[in-house]
């Protein structure tokens, strides 16, 4: 019984780590699209592909942006041309009543 509980807690920790990694991958795509860095970006519920672009520059503060859709594709070309299925904002979502951000 104790081994099963330990295995469950390890599985939960692995799952949480995978979710955090997926969030970081999506954050990198959002940053690259937001700053118009050339590349091809594809995001699906369990797949993130970033060809080009870069990791977010978290200096002097952590880039808070994200993508609020589960699927999409974007092509950013040199000269600030972007073709994308995503039409939303990269900002963290705000609650309507308090104007506070939630990440």
Give a description of the structure.
This protein has a 4-stranded antiparallel β-sheet with strand order 2-1-3-4, with helices on one face. Strand 5 and strand 6 form a beta hairpin. The protein has one helix at residues 2-34, and strands at 39-43, 48-52, 72-77, 81-84, 93-94, 101-102. Mean pLDDT is 80; it is low at 95-103. With 103 residues, the protein is an alpha+beta fold. The protein is built from 1 helix and 6 strands; from the N terminus they run H-E-E-E-E-E-E. Helices cover 32% and strands 23% of the residues.
Entry summary:
The chain is built from one helix and six strands, in the order αββββββ.
Q: Could you say how many structural domains there are in total?
A: 1
| Class from secondary-structure proportions | alpha+beta
Shape, principal axes of CA atoms: elongated
Helix-strand string:
HEEEEEE
Topology:
Layout: H1 2-34, E1 39-43, E2 48-52, E3 72-77, E4 81-84, E5 93-94, E6 101-102
What distinguishing features does this structure have?
single chain; 103 residues; alpha+beta; 4-stranded antiparallel β-sheet; two-stranded antiparallel sheet; 1 helix; elongated; disordered C terminus
């Amino acid at each position: 019984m104790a081994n099963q509980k330990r295995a469950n807690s390890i599985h939960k920790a692995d799952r949480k780590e995978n979710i955090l990694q997926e969030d970081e991958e999506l954050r990198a795509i959002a940053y690259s699209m937001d700053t118009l860095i050339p590349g091809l970006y594809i995001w699906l519920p369990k797949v993130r592909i970033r060809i080009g672009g870069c990791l977010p520059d978290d200096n002097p503060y952590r880039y808070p942006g994200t993508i609020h859709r589960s699927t999409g594709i974007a092509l950013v070309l040199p000269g600030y041309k972007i073709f994308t299925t995503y039409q939303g904002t990269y900002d963290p979502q705000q609650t309507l009543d308090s104007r506070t951000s939630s990440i």
